[in-house]
Automatic annotation (TrEMBL):
The keyword Lyase does not apply. This is Cytochrome biogenesis protein. The chain crosses the membrane at residues 6-33, 54-73, 79-99, 134-158, 170-192, 204-221. The lineage of its organism: Bacteria, Pseudomonadati, Pseudomonadota, Gammaproteobacteria, Vibrionales. It comes from the Bacteria. PANTHER family: HEAVY METAL TRANSPORTER, HEAVY METAL TRANSPORTER-RELATED. It comes from Photobacterium jeanii. Residues 7-214 form the Urease accessory protein UreH-like transmembrane domain. Keywords: Membrane, Transmembrane, Transmembrane helix. InterPro entries: UreH-like_TM_dom.
Length: 225
């Protein structure tokens, strides 16, 4: 596993506060409509829902990674992937500024994704109320396409991974990072969210990501020169 895998995991973990704001309500609400006698099985629903999310991330990463690897291969030039890596570095920097609350430009990407989401949301909501844990799997797969700046930024890394498997693994690692907060929706999640939303904690991690983004950009520029 390369450093991008671990970095993607850390981004998922750091961005868990953001994920709880966007998807935490869904994770909590999906168990509310189930029959009373099934309330003890809420973990089954949460696990299947989050498995669906991770599958959608992995699928998106594989598609992006494979597509850009194919384009680079057909072009017969390394400049295509180098340019993409430079773009990925820029997205890392933008993401670091967003997580550190220095600049909110990433929100514009989420707004752009709303055009696609408005067609997916009705299909996802058609599964509610969930009647079985298995129904939570396709529900989670569809909700995995919710417009999210963190997802879009990590997808830029998947694009320069060089393969379908590389892109899938990067996005899957990102999803794994979001799991602790998303699984423990409730009191524990509230405590975790308080830590993850601590400004000093966020900015310390954002600075690490910023340094990694700058380093990645430097390597890409060095390859061009």
């Amino acid at each position: 596993m390369n450093i991008d895998f671990y970095a993607a995991f850390v981004i998922g973990l750091m961005g868990a506060g953001h994920c709880l704001g966007m998807c935490g309500g869904v994770a909590a609400a999906l168990t509310m409509g189930m029959p009373q006698q099934q309330q003890t099985n809420r973990w089954h629903y949460l696990v299947m829902y989050n498995l669906g999310r991770l599958l959608s991330y992995a699928i998106a990463g594989g598609i992006i990674g494979g597509a850009f690897a194919g384009v680079a291969s057909l072009s017969g030039s390394s400049y295509a992937l180098i340019s993409l890596r430079l773009f990925a570095a820029l997205m890392m920097i933008v993401l670091a500024l967003y997580l550190g609350q220095w600049w909110q430009g990433l929100v514009k990407l989420e707004k752009a994704g709303q055009h696609v989401w408005k067609h997916i949301a009705p299909k996802a909501n058609a599964f509610l109320p969930l009647r079985s844990p298995f129904a939570a799997l396709p529900f989670g797969i569809l909700w995995g396409w919710l417009p999210c700046g963190l997802v879009y930024s990590t997808l830029s890394w998947a694009a320069v991974s060089g393969s379908v498997l590389g892109g899938s693994s990067i996005m899957f690692a990102f999803g794994l990072g979001t799991l602790p907060a998303m699984l423990f929706v409730g009191g524990l999640a509230a405590q975790l969210k308080q830590l993850l939303n601590n400004l000093y904690f966020k900015r310390a991690n954002a600075l690490l990501l910023l340094a990694y983004g700058i380093h990645t950009g430097y390597i890409a520029i060095k390859q061009i020169m």
